[in-house]
Design goal:
This protein has 16 helices and two strands. The chain has about 300 residues and is an all-alpha fold. It has a two-stranded antiparallel ribbon with strand order 1-2. A hairpin with a 2-residue loop joins strand 1 and strand 2. The protein is globular, with a radius of gyration of 18 Å.
């Protein structure tokens, strides 16, 4: 893949918006000085101080394209990240992927305990919808209801949760490429797609052709993200990843690497990257940040 030339301020933009969503989450997560303090402490432990913040960044980039106020995009970016954080807490539990390391530190159930981790996931999920329902995001209240429904669908049985169920049922199974893509369109892709469409829906939103272009971009970028995750799980070490390297292979999970091999998996990621960029062609320079984030997705090392 030929690396695209980034704008000189892309790194600054990522750092600024990463700090912005961290501050927003810190403000809206309940303080551990409030009862029940241990639950609130565990919620903050799980949602703050780590991660790439890729989903909020995608929401901010789409919100900029839509001309939405940053304060409006904060809400959807924060809601998506809370859903993502809840999913990681539950995914790491012994009844799911049974992992002990996340973002370079003990997973929530290890640091606290399993019952607390279960309640942390429940509480982060419900907080996401509480904030998205309560805080102003859209000019039209009906549009905000549509965004709430979009996030709910992306998070539930037709999206992320359904993808996780598919994943658990596929251990020690040989999936075809279409079956693997279908699983990851739900497990990983649905929330990435939601982040982009939620950002684009803030304020007055965007017109239908723009929304369709963003939808095509989101589906390609979401799959590319998962392909690279599989590649890194096979290539990188635990210290670099901040989570247990090689665990998918050890657990007998079907991945793009197990199905295609490392070389062809990277080729697929590059193909998806090209497809994502092509989807943005009609949007011109206004989609510049999304193009940079697509490159960031496929070029990352953790």
């Amino acid at each position: 893949m030929t690396t695209i030339m980034h704008q000189t301020d892309f790194g600054d933009w990522v750092r600024q918006h990463g700090a912005r969503i961290e501050d927003w989450l810190a403000h809206h997560l309940p303080g551990q000085d409030r009862v029940p303090g241990r639950l609130h402490e565990a919620m903050r432990y799980s949602a703050l101080g780590g991660g790439k913040r890729m989903r909020p960044l995608l929401a901010y980039a789409a919100g900029e394209l839509a001309g939405a106020a940053p304060e409006q995009v904060d809400v959807v970016a924060g809601a998506v990240e809370l859903i993502h954080a809840y999913s990681l807490v539950h995914d790491d539990m012994p009844c799911m992927d049974d992992d002990v390391l996340r973002r370079g530190r003990p997973t929530c159930h290890v640091q606290f305990n399993e019952p607390t981790a279960l309640l942390v996931g429940d509480s982060l999920q419900t907080l996401a919808f509480e904030l998205l329902a309560r805080l102003p995001v859209c000019t039209d209240a009906r549009q905000q209801l549509r965004l709430i429904a979009l996030l709910a669908e992306a998070s539930g049985a037709n999206g992320m949760a359904g993808g996780q169920a598919f994943d658990l049922a596929s251990v020690q199974s040989a999936l075809t490429l279409p079956e693997l893509e279908s699983m990851h369109q739900r497990k990983t892709g649905a929330l990435i797609r939601a982040a982009i469409l939620l950002g684009a829906g803030c304020g007055d939103g965007v017109d239908d052709p723009t929304l369709e272009a963003l939808d095509h971009f989101a589906k390609a970028a979401g799959l590319a993200f998962q392909v690279i995750d599989d590649v890194l799980d096979a290539e990188a070490d635990t210290a670099t990843l901040g989570k247990t390297a090689g665990k998918d292979a050890a657990d007998g999970k079907p991945t793009y690497v197990s199905l295609l091999g490392l070389r062809d998996a990277r080729s697929l990621a590059n193909e998806l990257y090209s497809r994502a960029l092509g989807a943005l062609d009609p949007l011109g320079p206004s989609a510049g940040r999304l193009r940079e984030l697509a490159a960031f997705i496929v070029e990352r090392r953790h």
